[in-house]
Structure formats: C-alpha cells, structure tokens
What we know:
single chain; 4-stranded parallel sheet; 16 helices; globular; binds 1,3-dihydroxyacetonephosphate; binds iron/sulfur cluster
Amino acid sequence: xxxxxxxxxxxxxxxxxxxxxxxxxxxxxxxxxxxxxxxxxxxxxxxxxxxxxxxxxxxxxxxxxxxxxxxxxxxxxxxxxxxxxxxxxxxxxxxxxxxxxxxxxxxxxxxxxxxxxxxxxxxxxxxxxxxxxxxxxxxxxxxxxxxxxxxxxxxxxxxxxxxxxxxxxxxxxxxxxxxxxxxxxxxxxxxxxxxxxxxxxxxxxxxxxxxxxxxxxxxxxxxxxxxxxxxxxxxxxxxxxxxxxxxxxxxxxxxxxxxxxxxxxxxxxxxxxxxxxxxxxxxxxxxxxxxxxxxxxxxxxxxxxx
Length: 306
Ligand code: 13P
Ligand code: SF4
C-alpha cells in the first residue's frame, strides 16, 4: 500500500477508535511521521497520563508500552509490534538486587525505565536518561543500586558524586558497540563539529562528547545551537526530528560509520501501525502486581517534577 493511503487509513481509524499514536525517535521515520506525538522515554511516559483518548498506540519497544499501561491502567494500550523488546530491559537478576539490599540499610534501588515490569517491582524509583541525575540527587538514601545500565549508571555516579552508586552489568547492545576510534575518525574529518552522545554509550565514548543527554535533549540542543556540524552518538532514528526542526538552518549531522540502529525499534513500521489499528492487536495486559510495578514510575514523575 502507498504511504499516502496508509496515512489516510490511519487518520480514519484514529477517529473511529478514539486513538492517539505516540512514537519514540528510534522507530522508522515513516512511523514517526504518522504519530500524533514523538518523544523520548520520559516525555512519552509523562504525556500518556495527560491524554484523554480511550486508546493509546505506542510505537516503540515493550517496556515503553508496559509503562504507559501501568500509568494508565484504565486505557487500552496497543503495540504495533509486540515482539519489539529492549534486550537491556532484562539484564539484571533478582539475586543481585537482594544481595545489595542485604548489605546496605540506607539503599535506594534505581531502575532505568528500560526494564520489565517484574524488575520495576524490585525497585524504589525509576529514571530515564533525561531525569536520572535529578532523580538520584533528590533521593534521601546515600547508597544507590543502579540497574540495569552500567553506562548510564556510571555517568550518573560521576554527576552525583555525593552518592555511593553501585553498578550492574547491563548495557544497550546498540550504544555499547559505538567505538571511540570511530568517533575520533569523525572528529578528525569534521573538526568544527559538536559531539553529542546518549549516556548509554560506553565511558570512553562519553569522554569525547561536548554534550550528553537523552534523545530529546540531543535533538533540542542541536536545534538551538549556533554550530553547523554535529556528530551524533545515538540511534540514527533521531535524524528525522533533527531534520524537521532545523530545516533551512544549513546544519549537517554525522553518525558513526557503523550506523547505530536499534533492531527492535526498526521493526515498528507504518504498515504494522496500520494493522494494529485495524485489528486492535498487540494489546498490553496489566502485569502481575501492577501497583508495585507502577510505584517507582509514579515516584519518578514526582521527583522529576520537583
Ligand atoms: P531516551 O529516553 O533518551 O529516548 O532513550 C531511550 C532508549 O531506549 C535509549 O536507547
Ligand atoms: Fe534498548 Fe538500546 Fe534499543 Fe534503546 S536502543 S530500546 S536501550 S536496545
């Protein structure tokens, strides 16, 4: 089916089903173009609570749709590609959390929002890459077990030195693969370029960065910058919004030669969004003990808003 026809059918189905479409910046540009709202993990989680529609379609990976369902248990939440899962969202074991809890009385377990609902149940608070520093700084506890992402956890530990941050061994396969050598090659080719990195990148890649932030923060930083060239160290999906926001500004962005793509996000095509709206498939069920899994998400919203 032609893209114009897909767009027409989706607009019709959204009206018929009282549905709103949310998309993450890492899904294909064709899917982002069909969404009512596009954003980073924090923006999407917070936004979903303010929407009135009966149905929310989340174009992203499963932890995102699960978070929207936990925060909005009364709504129908659909995922166009239910197999789209973030591998990092599973990279921590309960036994590891229990061991650290036994060792420290004054401990907060901080779960990156990139976690399953089961893992959220072990946590005291969630964070996203856009609010992790703020939320961890606001916590009364001195000891912080940061799960599952070691790269984001290490970055937070550096930014909040007053806390004792204990790390876990999880990582994002896509960001962790970015190598300092390819960043240095890009810097040599484009010496005037500003380097922007997502905090899921390894530490030696973050050392190269002039600016570190979430997808939304990177995009907004580029749109507001006086510079003309940018080396962007995150998934290439952010290019669509950067191009949209910087039209006519003569800005150029460069990605690592290995072209970071999240294979799970890439599965969320426009055709799957259409099928999901047509058939009502990919419905998120509330996970076991939803109140316990939702508590750290609510705590995040509260601390991030302070
Ligand atoms: P953001 O919160 O920056 O959008 O990141 C989500 C994610 O999965 C990064 O890999
Ligand atoms: Fe997960 Fe990495 Fe994909 Fe983000 S980019 S959803 S952290 S695998």
